[in-house]
Design goal:
The complex is a heterodimer of chains A (451) and B (224). Chain A has 451 residues and is of the alpha+beta class. Chain A has 3 domains: 28-160; 233-293; 296-449, Histidine kinase-like ATPase, C-terminal domain (Heat Shock Protein 90). Chain A has 8 helices and 14 strands. In chain A, strand 3 and strand 4 form a beta hairpin. With 224 residues, chain B is of the alpha/beta class. Chain B folds into 2 domains: 2-119, Rossmann fold (3-Layer(aba) Sandwich), CATH 3.40.50.2300; 126-216, Winged helix-like DNA-binding domain superfamily/Winged helix DNA-binding domain (Arc Repressor Mutant, subunit A), CATH 1.10.10.10. Chain B has helices at 10-22, 33-42, 59-68, 84-92, 105-119, 152-163, 171-178, 187-201; strands at residues 2-6, 26-30, 47-51, 75-79, 97-100, 126-129, 132-135, 140-143, 146-147, 206-209, 213-216. Chain B has a 5-stranded parallel β-sheet, sandwiched between helices. In chain B, helix 2 runs parallel beside helix 3 and helix 6 (152-163) packs across helix 8. Classes of the chains: A alpha+beta (451), B alpha/beta (224). Chains A and B meet through helix 4, helix 5, helix 6 and helix 7 of A and helix 1, helix 4 and helix 5 of B.
Chain lengths: 451, 224
């Protein structure tokens, strides 16, 4: 069983462990108490029997004395200070006593009852605690009542109880273990659907499945349903936004193209003004639409994109678009890099950056990736894109990230590429740095979340 | 050189067709995906300009169908969306170039020129066959440095033959590449045009390969 400190399994296990241990301790005390009660009753019954036996064995000798027709045969009454004693007395004078008493006397305070009675705790000749029973009986032919007293050691009861308590502890501990194992199994079985939930979620996160699949119990089913609805809603939202952005692009770009072509012949400052304005409109549309297409954090669940596959697609595309320039695009360290985000976003980001590198490069573009692991900021990866073009002077590097800013009006492009790239990186809380490459041109360094 | 323009926006289709015609191309226009697909499938073109946002059948589907049927004609994609996802899927589907709207017509013509030159294996902007030099940008053929005055039809056929310098070209192929859909085709005019070109460039400029067709005369030493 896989436990972390805040799992349901651990909570259930700890609480059941608490009550099982508590219940078993209570049971243990109860058992000991019952057992002791029982043992004491048995002990007392035995003392009683002994008294009755002695009464029966006593007879008056006719001169005020007492004679025992037989003595108790139990050898413990013969062993000195064995803890087992009997004594027959008249008033304060002991008439006869067991050999185990040696020269000592038993003293029971108060008047003794004539019938069966409760045992009393007294201190014996060896200062040992004793359980004693006494009866005052008037024998036929004697004047005064005789006191019959039998006593046995409390230690006997205690050792029985201690032995029982040891056994009980063993049995109850074993029972406790068994209960815990059964509870653990029960929790595992009961919470298994949650594990399935986890599994289904990780399938989605891994991009293997779009919705949560599988059978879930009634208690979990509503969550799964809501989650699936949310996932559907999210992807629907993104698809709709992208379709709308596409339709808007189509609806705006075509008239823009027509106007631009129809005004090509307008010469002079008016024509220039119209063209300048058209360019501005186009750059704004491009920028806003590229923003509208971004998925960003709206589609993080299940978003996982292979960096190598995206860069492979882009290299294929750019090698065709720039095939007359003979640019060599090399890649390294991209295997197993996974971007935690939407594929189209990554395509847009890297497309703009590598395209920019292609525009400026003399012949070489290097793309390298490496995964980074910072314990406090989660899994990240770094991508470096460098070219051997003219590069950008350090003072201008901040400015090129602004919208529509272009250092060179001659190279085709709307000048929003780097700016869009910066927006995307910001959306994913990544980092984009520009500096000078060791092969001469611009070096773009990206840090992005890894899946 | 024949170009097919598949574009649903009629105004844009007209502008593109006009610009291409001014650049010396024979242009056919299709206004939806199905018509475009049919024309590309059945007619012979040197370049196809294909818009992606088409009614009836999307540009991407049309392109995939053509490439599936091993049509090798270079295709230039036009698109209003200009997302990288679209560029990637367009080029993966077999396009040869991509142009985002809005574009300058000069840019479109330049790209179409590049595609045609690349297709015929001529990377340079000027194509030289012996004493004759073809400048596709200026729509001009010069002979020993002097411009030769040609009619539109004469230019079309001469330019096509110079671009395919090493091959023997049949009359049917020549007709396919110099006539638009709605132009009357007459195989006799090919003979007439060839004769006029021989008068302007010299009798041995074009060789007749009997039973097969015509070929620009191999330049001395360069070709057997």
């Amino acid at each position: 069983m896989n436990l972390d400190h805040n799992s349901l399994k651990l909570r259930l296990l700890v609480t059941s462990m608490l009550w099982v241990v508590f219940a078993l301790i209570i049971a243990w005390y109860l058992l000991i108490w019952l057992f002791q009660d029982h043992i004491e009753a048995r002990f007392d019954a035995r003392l009683n029997d002994q008294v009755a036996e002695m009464v029966a064995a006593s007879e008056s000798d006719g001169q005020g004395g007492v004679r025992l027709t037989w003595e108790p045969t139990d050898p413990r009454y013969a062993l000195p200070h064995s803890g087992w004693y009997w004594q027959i007395s008249e008033g304060s004078q002991v008439i006869v006593a067991s050999r185990s008493m040696w020269t000592d006397r038993l003293n029971l305070s108060g008047a003794l009852p004539a019938d069966k009675s409760e045992a009393l705790l007294i201190t014996g000749p060896n200062k040992e605690p004793l359980r004693a029973l006494g009866r005052a009986i008037r024998l036929p032919g004697s004047e005064n009542p005789l006191s019959f007293i039998v006593a046995g050691p409390v230690a006997d009861i205690d050792s029985d109880v201690a032995e029982f308590s040891g056994d009980a502890r063993l049995v109850l501990t074993a029972l406790g273990m068994l209960l815990l194992i059964i509870i653990a199994l029960q929790i595992s079985y009961g919470l298994k659907p949650l594990g399935n939930l986890h599994l289904a979620l990780s399938e989605i996160r891994a991009g293997k499945s779009r919705l949560m699949r599988g059978e879930f119990p009634g208690e979990v089913e509503p969550i799964v349903r809501e989650l699936n609805a949310l996932l559907e809603h999210n992807s629907g939202l993104l698809e709709r936004a992208r379709t709308q952005a596409g339709n808007l692009a189509h609806a705006l770009k075509n008239p823009l193209l027509i106007i631009q072509n129809e005004t090509t012949n307008v010469q002079g400052p008016r024509g220039q003004l119209v063209h300048q304005q058209l360019k501005t409109v186009n750059s704004i549309i491009d920028h806003q639409l590229s923003k509208a297409r971004l998925a960003g954090s709206t589609n993080l669940i299940g978003a996982q994109t292979s960096v190598q596959s995206v860069i492979g697609d882009l290299i294929y595309t750019l090698e065709i678009l720039y095939q007359d320039r003979n640019i060599s695009l090399t890649q390294a360290g991209l295997e197993n890099l996974l971007f935690r985000g939407d594929r189209q976003d990554l395509e847009e980001l890297l497309g703009n950056l590598i395209d920019n590198a292609c525009k400026w490069a003399n012949g070489t573009i290097k793309i390298a990736g490496e995964s980074l692991d910072y314990p406090d900021s989660g899994r990240l990866f770094r991508l470096t894109i460098e070219d051997d073009g003219p590069g950008i002077p350090a003072a201008e590097m901040l400015a090129v990230l602004q919208r529509g800013h272009r250092l060179d009006e001659q190279t085709p492009g709307s000048g929003i590429g780097l700016n869009v790239a910066r927006d995307i990186v910001k959306l994913y809380s990544g980092k984009l740095d520009l500096d000078t490459s060791s092969i001469g041109g611009l070096r773009v360094r990206l840090i992005l979340p890894a899946a | 050189m024949r170009v097919l323009v598949v574009e649903d926006e009629t105004e844009i289709a007209r502008q593109v067709a006009d610009a291409l015609a001014r650049a010396g191309y024979v242009v056919d226009v299709a206004h939806d995906g199905e018509q475009g697909h049919f024309l590309g499938d059945t007619e012979t073109y040197d370049v196809i300009v294909l818009d992606l946002g088409l009614p009836a059948m999307s540009g991407l589907t049309v392109l995939k169908n053509w490439r599936g049927a091993s049509l090798k004609t270079p295709v230039l994609i036009l698109s209003a969306r200009s997302s990288w996802q679209e560029k990637v899927s367009g080029l993966r589907a077999g396009a040869d170039d991509y142009l985002a709207k809005p574009f300058e017509m000069e840019e479109l013509i330049a790209r179409v020129d590049v595609l045609i030159r690349r297709q015929s294996g001529n990377a340079a902007a000027l194509i030289i066959c012996g004493a004759a030099t073809l400048d596709t940008a200026a729509l001009q053929i010069t002979m020993n440095g002097n411009a030769v005055t040609l009619t539109a039809m004469e230019y079309r056929i001469a330019a096509y033959m110079m671009m395919n310098g090493d091959r023997v070209l049949s009359k049917t192929e020549l007709m396919d590449h110099i006539y638009g859909l709605d132009e009357d085709k007459d195989s006799n005019t090919i003979e007439v045009l060839i004769n006029r070109l021989r008068k302007k460039f010299g009798a041995d400029f074009i060789v007749t390969q009997r039973g097969h067709g015509y070929r620009i005369r191999p330049t001395n030493g360069e070709r057997p």
